[in-house]
Amino acid sequence: MADLTTDAVAKVLGVLATAIKDETALLGALPRNMQFIKDEMDSMNGFLLHLTKTETAHDDQVRAWMKQIRDVAYIGEDCVDRYVRDVVPHEPEPHNGCGLGLPYVGDLKFFLCHPKKYCLRRRLAKQIVELRTRVNDVGDRRQRYGVTVPSLTPELARRQQEVEKVADDAQEETRKDAFRRALLLRQVGSSASSLLGLGWVKAKARQLLADNTQPLFVREAIGKLPVHVRSQGATIVRDIWMKCSPPDDETFRCIEMLLCALYACPYKLDSNVELEMFRRKLKDGAAGAEEIKRQAMVFCYSLLSTSQKSCLQYLTAFLEEKAISRTSLVRRWAAEGLVGREQGRTPEEELVFRGFINPARSSDAGTVKSCHPLAGSVRTFIIHIAGRDNFVADLPVHLDRQIRIRQIVLRTQTMTTRDDAAAGKPMDELVAFLGGLPEMYRLNVLDLGGCRGLKQRHIKAICTVSWLKYLCLRNTDISRLKPSLLKGRLTMLETLDIRQTNIRPGDIKSIFLPKLKHLLAGRYLTKGGDDAGTASASASASDEVELATVEMPLKIGRMRNMETLSHVQVSRDGKELEGVARLHKLRKLGVVVHGNERTATQLHEVIYALAGCLRSLSVWVTHHNQQGASLDISFQEEATPILILENLDIRGRCKLPSWIERATKLANVSLRDTGMNAQETLRRLCHVPSLSCLTLDRRSFVGQVLSFMEEVRFEALRFLIFDGDTTGRLAFEANAAPKLEKIVCNVGSVVHGGDLIVGIQHLPKLEVIELRGNFNLTRLRELMNGATTATNASKPTRYLCRYLDSGENEFVEIPKTGTDTTFSLPVGGTNQQNVF
């Protein structure tokens, strides 16, 4: 009996010893395997960078291998991050088995002290072993099928250097701006169609075709192409024009995209071989108009960089969206690891310029604020190309999952009041979907913007998605974001967007997210407490607007990766600003502060400390006593640091800072409710050398007349926005604003009689005067028809008066000639009360 028991125990001990040795070997190899993965990641990164620089058409073998490399690199990055986060801080110290010759004693001790961390460590070790095997298989597969990597020829290297040289040219942006203006002549044609009628446009199109004449925007744009592609570019455009006659909107868009591609990539055309191949396809008599336009898009797509192609394919996740914020799009790309700055420009700038993305809304200065993700023929083309490049019949898995998430969110927005009781069902479906994702799948982005029915249990489940980098709760009905739900979670989060929500001010105060880069908060309210919409909508309105937002996190100084902090409430003593002064990566800061001396001191210390990185500053000043002194954020130090600030937005009683004249890169200044002296403010602002856009909103200054005199010369000013309730007259003298292109007036509830703008003859670059308010569109259309007839009969149009109606969301444009040197609101053209 004893022998049987001894044999049984011996067998158990033998099995246990073998298991312990295997476990020790598995865990002991973890650091070595991690080093192998790290080396492989470096090699993969170099391989992908090399393929990016070749910029040639890759065959199917190379593209399939690139896909495998991307997948392995994606999982490898995941494992490295998990190793650094979960294993390294808790790694067992080296040991000698406590003198017993048992090397696994330390692992056993670690298991007893940290059972959860031990399990994470063991699971990661197994995944890395599997990943190492997969890496070896990818390498063997390359040799087995003879996949060769295209070399970077001397010609390609030379063209890369020329691209970088052009990008660094100080005059390049000026040339590109001239090229854009040539393309904008197409929009002038669209304006003509509204002014002169569709029949005139059709007749003009027939005349152009009969004369074989291209539109003005085409001729002007071709003339601004690089010299060595200008001739063949003109020939190709002419062939497209003839093949696709009569031209429709898609034809014009195709031509515009082609011109932009030729302008952006003249040195990527290998001795014009790609261009010549496309030209031969145009000569093919069997190719119809649709095939020609498709081939043109293929050609334009081939000239995109690898990063730009990846970003463009990612847009298929927004197929159901009407528009998406440009900055949100860029942050999502960054969270997915798709973006990097290329020759000083971000991918979305290039994709907008190339015509693959259409702007949906732009600022008064022309900056794109939101985009239509994919539209028209581009939509069909990109869906097809996303499947082709990833060797699937439909969209690749990661895009398909993002679409699934957005579909669930959009479904919550269409629920009726009767569905409120079941409002949690779509979100329960989303939580179940997230829980069902494969363990090796890394979800970086979760956009719940506009979602309804979001409960605390859903937030709790979302916070368990440990690899989340981008979380958008914007415009949701969430009312709490309890700090306990975030404690120790979402440690990889880079973007937290809680704008236009009712989250309690104190919920964010105690959070600490070590990797956070962008914290976006704030809800705009009218004086009556109603939602006032977005910041841009609030800025253009004459109504009083307040900003309700969350309190500044107390540990903000430890979030050293912070780049955007907008907008957060600062306490009365402004003590949290001491931490903000330590954020040396901060690019955009928006704060709501109390108008007292202590806060002013803290704020100008922040500006001084961050002078080398801060590019955008927004200050909202609140006063419990409306008669209180204005906030002064000027420097007290004699030596002013070099400021790289580009945007300054001040709302509330605040003085114009003393350093503003030395902010040489400051391009946009917006003032609202500041109560400044008008002429003194203009006298100081005219010395800001780069000021191109000036916004003077509600009660920004005292006085009814705003005079731009010859001695107050704004050399760079291109856009001027002012409030009609505050300003009774805008007056210009000679040389006061030689580059002013656009004047925008927000017509308020009361319209003052007389001339609104005088001295227009002193504005040689003026293109449009835009009025926004409640207009009598019927009366304005009558004036438009009369003005159009008179203009065609006598003198050409010098500038346009555009009336944007806030109620009907329509506009009417009335042409003006060189004799129109003053401007006043037409009698009967508005629905507001007139005061004379």
TrEMBL record:
Domain Disease resistance N-terminal: 8-93
Transmembrane segments: none
Domain Disease resistance R13L4/SHOC-2-like LRR intervals: 442-780
Pfam families xrefs: LRR_14, Rx_N
Cited InterPro entries: Disease_R_plants, LRR_dom_sf, LRR_R13L4/SHOC2-like, RX-like_CC, Rx_N
GO terms, molecular function: nucleotide binding
GO biological process, one term: defense response to other organism
Keywords: Coiled coil, Leucine-rich repeat, Nucleotide-binding, Plant defense, Repeat
PANTHER family assigned to the protein according to its UniProt record, in alphabetical order: DISEASE RESISTANCE PROTEIN RP (PTHR23155), EXPRESSED PROTEIN (PTHR23155:SF1091)
Similarity comment: family membership: Belongs to the disease resistance NB-LRR family.
Name of the protein in question: Rx N-terminal domain-containing protein
Origin species: Digitaria exilis
Lineage start: Eukaryota, Viridiplantae, Streptophyta, Embryophyta, Tracheophyta
